[in-house]
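Section 5: illustrative case.
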């Protein structure tokens, strides 16, 4: 069945990755030539931006990362071949996270065999397509890290990392970093390479990377992926120098300060423990040379309080304290597109024949839904985009909660979330009005985001009552799905976007905060079931944005219902994941939920069975986490609790 869709394709192209790429590249003032360097010919970037050329997943990911789009900002729909590639990489990354070199070695051997990446073919691999070169680079990077865990000699590691670098940064040894556009993975690869160089050369390269990260225009959430490790590697190299001079140790203290401040702003603690060990050694040497202790205050004091508590909390929760680079390579919210289409079609009660009418033949749709599509096909064709749009899904491969190529709109979206978290709802209304002028409000997905956000803001300001608020959120839900789906979420296999899950969360909030936890739990049941399925499949790490929020919410609901053991278990899950992923933005709330349930459990025990539990110390650390994350509302909350406890004791 042939369908003419030239005009249709042009319309879809306006919403495509190419348009998004162009806006981001223009914002960061990156030329097509610079962006393409080492990856592809610059004309290819132009063709992608104009919607004239499809882009394969590995290249799309690399381009997005080079223009500083963090993977946690979007959901990614992949065809079968790309989804299989992602799953293979995820298994290797999980083994790295567990510091399991033996498992990594086995998986890397399978990966190389499946993708025909034999060592003898490396020279030929350099001449392969960009996707094949990116596969090669991932393999060599992981192989080098694996061999490093196995204590391979420096010369061997130097060769491995050098080969990996040449695949996308040819001539890296002669290049000035300021002339390059690099993604976080490429910078990390350079850091691994630097650690294999002679001392002086390694320090010189680390200083170049440090300057690159400081001088290049980028958002803090992107900078933090590499900056703490860069300072760590530099600090360790300076400590290893034989010269015992005070300036060197003062330099270590100086360069670590902005790393800590960056972690506080982004609520991440990448390599915090390792950095603190370097600082401790530098302070020790200064104390010996000067004969007096270093005074600690401000950021340094707050950071040390958090650092001292982490090993203790990690041991209690059974979480390894060692840091790995797994966080750099994980991709969030990745799905096989055929699964999403199948689940979505069933949710909306549409037959296969009805869905594909005027788009493709039924056999094509059946093959897609049953994972029988051609693995060779790397691009998502136009008919899949049209199927998605008909089902209320984003037609883009990269799906964000707003359909817009405007970088200003996407930045404003994040600002609105931050303003709401601070309770500045009057400002939220002004921001929302501005956002409406930047996006296409005829798009159902855009309508959904604005409606539910506006409803919450007006409800918090007292401008509408609970009934009107619920009406607005349900109206937002119906932008992409009928209300009948909301009522039957727990009865069938389903796929919900993050935006739709947030609609359900918004519906339940008034009940939770008015202490009707039973009603809140009933509304959220479908979302909780979805998160449980993610957990059962071991996907919570690649779905952490919603998993950590809704699991903490579940812990709170269970506590309110008197299910303290279960509430504690749910809170513990989030604490463990936050510690493993080095994310602290929600750790204080998870720990507080755990404390509340644990106190209730302890109070129920007889005196003989009661374990000694210093819950005040945990509360003090909830306050420390809030201060570290510069969360004024939470800081005020925990200070008040501690003041009340002290007054009661006095």
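Designed sequence:
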């Amino acid at each position: 069945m042939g369908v003419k869709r030239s005009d249709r394709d042009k319309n879809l192209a306006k919403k495509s990755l190419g348009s998004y790429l162009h806006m981001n590249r223009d914002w960061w003032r990156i030329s097509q030539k610079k962006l393409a360097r080492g990856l592809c010919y610059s004309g290819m970037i132009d063709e992608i931006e104009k919607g004239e050329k499809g882009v394969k997943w590995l290249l799309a990911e690399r381009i997005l990362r080079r223009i500083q789009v963090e993977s946690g900002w979007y959901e990614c729909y992949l065809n079968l071949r790309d989804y299989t590639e992602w799953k293979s990489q995820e298994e290797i990354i999980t083994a790295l996270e567990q510091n399991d070199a033996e498992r990594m070695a086995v998986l890397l051997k399978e990966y190389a065999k499946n993708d025909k990446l034999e060592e003898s073919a490396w020279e030929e691999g350099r001449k392969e397509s960009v996707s094949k070169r990116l596969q090669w680079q991932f393999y060599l990077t992981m192989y080098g890290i694996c061999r490093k865990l196995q204590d391979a000699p420096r010369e061997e590691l130097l060769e491995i990392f050098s080969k990996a670098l040449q695949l996308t940064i040819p001539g890296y040894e002669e290049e000035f970093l300021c002339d390059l556009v690099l993604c976080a993975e490429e910078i990390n690869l350079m850091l691994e390479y630097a650690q294999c160089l002679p001392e002086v050369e390694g320090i010189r390269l680390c200083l170049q990377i440090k300057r690159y990260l400081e001088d290049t225009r980028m958002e803090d959430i992107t900078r933090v992926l590499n900056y703490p490790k860069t300072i760590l590697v530099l600090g360790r190299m300076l400590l290893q120098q034989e010269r015992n001079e005070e300036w060197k140790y003062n330099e270590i203290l100086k360069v670590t300060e902005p790393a800590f401040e960056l972690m506080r702003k982004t609520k991440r603690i990448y390599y915090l423990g390792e950095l603190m060990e370097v600082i401790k050694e530098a302070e020790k040497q200064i104390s010996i040379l000067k004969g007096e202790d270093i005074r600690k205050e401000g950021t340094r004091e707050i950071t040390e309080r958090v650092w001292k508590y982490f090993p203790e909390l990690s041991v209690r929760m059974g979480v390894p304290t060692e840091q790995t680079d797994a966080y750099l390579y994980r991709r969030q919210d990745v799905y096989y597109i055929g699964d999403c289409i199948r689940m979505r079609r069933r949710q909306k009660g549409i037959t296969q024949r009805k869905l594909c009418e005027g788009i493709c033949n039924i056999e094509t749709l059946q093959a897609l839904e049953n994972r029988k599509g051609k693995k060779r096909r790397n691009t998502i064709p136009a008919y899949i985009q049209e199927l998605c749009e008909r089902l209320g899904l984003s037609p883009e491969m990269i799906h964000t909660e707003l359909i817009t190529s405007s970088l200003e709109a996407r930045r404003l979206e994040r600002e609105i979330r931050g303003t709401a978290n601070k309770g500045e709802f009057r400002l939220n209304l002004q921001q929302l009005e501005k956002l409406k002028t930047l996006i296409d409000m005829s798009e159902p997905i855009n309508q959904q985001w604005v409606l539910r956000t506006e409803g919450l803001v007006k409800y918090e300001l007292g401008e509408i009552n609970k009934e009107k608020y619920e009406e607005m959120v349900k109206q937002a839900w119906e932008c992409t799905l009928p209300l009948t789906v909301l009522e039957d979420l727990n009865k069938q296999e389903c796929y919900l976007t993050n935006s739709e899950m947030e609609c359900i969360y918004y519906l339940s909030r008034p009940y939770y905060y008015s202490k009707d936890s039973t009603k809140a739990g009933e509304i959220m049941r479908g979302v909780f079931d979805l998160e449980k399925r993610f957990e059962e499949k071991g996907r919570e790490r690649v779905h952490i944005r919603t998993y950590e929020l809704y699991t903490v919410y579940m812990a709170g609901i269970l506590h309110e219902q008197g299910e303290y053991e279960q509430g504690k278990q749910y809170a513990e899950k989030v604490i463990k994941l936050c510690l493993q992923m080095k994310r602290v933005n929600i750790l204080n709330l998870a720990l507080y939920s755990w404390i509340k349930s644990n106190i209730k459990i302890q109070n129920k025990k007889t005196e003989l069975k009661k374990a000694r539990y210093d819950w005040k110390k945990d509360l003090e650390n909830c306050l420390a986490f809030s201060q570290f994350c510069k969360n004024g509302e939470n800081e005020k909350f925990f200070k008040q609790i501690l003041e009340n406890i002290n007054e009661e004791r006095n």
